[in-house]
Amino acid sequence: MGDGLYQAISKAVTEGEEEEAIKRVEEALKNGLPPIEVMQKGIVAGISKAGELWKANEYFLPDVIMAADAFKAAMAILKPRLEGKEGARKGKKVVMGVVQGDVHDLGKSLVIAMLTSAGFEVIDLGIDVPLQKFIDTVRQQKPDIIGLGAYMTTTMLEMKGIIAELEKLGLRQNLKVMVGGVPTSQEFANQVGADAWGRDALDAVQKALKL
Ligand code: B12
User: Fold this and answer.
1) Average pLDDT of the residues in 31-47
2) Which residues, in sequence order, are CB contacts of 183 under 8 Å at separation 6+?
3) Phi and psi for 83 in degrees, rounded to 5?
4) Mean pLDDT of 64-91
5) What are the chain's domains?
6) Ligand 1 atom 16: the closest Cα is on which residue?
7) Which of 94, 104, 185 to mutate to test the pocket of ligand 1 (most atoms within 8 A of CB)?
8) pTM reported for the whole predicted model
């Protein structure tokens, strides 16, 4: 039963069918399917498929925007079920943001949902965040971890500048830096001087717990 529902959720997200996506997520939760599986096998699978279709020139930008909207609508239903389960890391603060020039926000939102569910306090700076905003927030909020997201090869190098600036200003001693997003990798994280790289939202939580 689970697999059929996951497929239905995935298809609804890919096709940008918001209402259908919401209905199916509600059904899955009512049937007791694990929220994390609903997220990975349904919602994330659906947007990934939309990405593939885009790459294959079968989807155009408006199709991807519709899929992204369905993704957000489905996540909104799921989010309360992911949050606040453990509370094991209460008091650990994470600042998350997408670097300047980049407006992709789905990946970051997933990571935030998962970190929150693992008990981290997360401050969301949003998308297209200028370097100075990261610096100011680190100064004011004194987080334990800063998470940077970049989803394009054209914006990923912003991370290098942010980390260098944190070093320069002496803000790096008690701060761990985590990076993620499609074009990034462990190798890239090493290159820019980050402490960790997250492949996906689950990995991000594992790495954050380690840090
Ligand atoms: C959806 C999407 C859009 C949507 C975004 C909607 C939204 N609200 O976010 C829209 C349609 C608006 C869009 C616009 C554009 N996009 Co776009 N988009 C995508 C697409 C299909 C999926 C991205 C996504 O949301 N994935 C789902 C999420 C859940 O996965 P994720 O982002 O990988 O995140 C996971 C991990 O990376 C990790 N993670 C993410 N963040 C972080 C952060 C930390 C700290 C950690 C530890 C982990 C972590 O965990 C997440 C969850 O598992 C990708 C294709 C792809 N393969 O990614 C292209 C893609 C990223 N886009 C691309 C492009 C080119 C664009 C545009 C320039 C197109 C245009 N011509 O206008 C614009 C750019 C606008 C801008 N300035 O940012 C290219 C980038 C190519 C490149 N240069 O690298 C891609 C790769 C598509 C392609 N193959 O060409 N896009």
Assistant:
1) 93
2) 150, 151, 152, 153, 156
3) -80, 150
4) 81
5) 2-82 (1.10.1240.10), 93-210 (3.40.50.280)
6) 104
7) 104
8) 0.90
